[in-house]
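DM from R.C. (forwarded with permission)

"hey, sorry to bug you on a friday — could you get me a structure for this? deadline for the figure draft is monday and I only need the backbone to look sensible"
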Amino acid sequence: MYGFQLAQAMNLDSELLRALARGGLIHDVGKIQIPSEILNKPGRLDTDERIVIEQHPLIGYEMCKYIGFMTEELSVIRHHHEKWDGTGYPDKLKGTEISLPARILAIADVYDALTSRRSYREPWSQERTLQIIVEGSGTHFDPECVSAFVRLCNKGELVVPEAMGQSYGRALIIG
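My reply, with the result:
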């Protein structure tokens, strides 16, 4: 939902909004094949564990590519961990080689991860999380997407998904 709100603020057309909503909802589906001891590990992952977890975008992509997902939706699933500077995974894409919906979801995914409670830490504040996102502008994240996200947050217009209700999410998928 964070990604959808950012995409709306950036005036994406309805097809890209739909692709972001659909792909965003299941972007981590590949994690179902990742062992729970890796997914739920409280500390840092070692090198071998990192190799395993970094397979989830490819696993998700493979799971979804034959069941009717469109190119942009598949891009969100496969490329949400790519980085603006080319150091992400799985394909080491750089800059605009990464689809705009995937670049938007990258910010939303990090924001959600850092502001959510985890078994190993308390949620971060919006201020602290935005600082991390701004620091990643031009390396981890698309600078234009970061600017739009910061504006959205500073205007107080970023709505927590739980406050939107389930019907909003259903409308995105069906709509």
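R.C.: lifesaver. Residues 2-174 form a domain with the Hypothetical protein af1432 fold (CATH 1.10.3210.10).
me: no worries. The first helix runs from residue 2 to 9.
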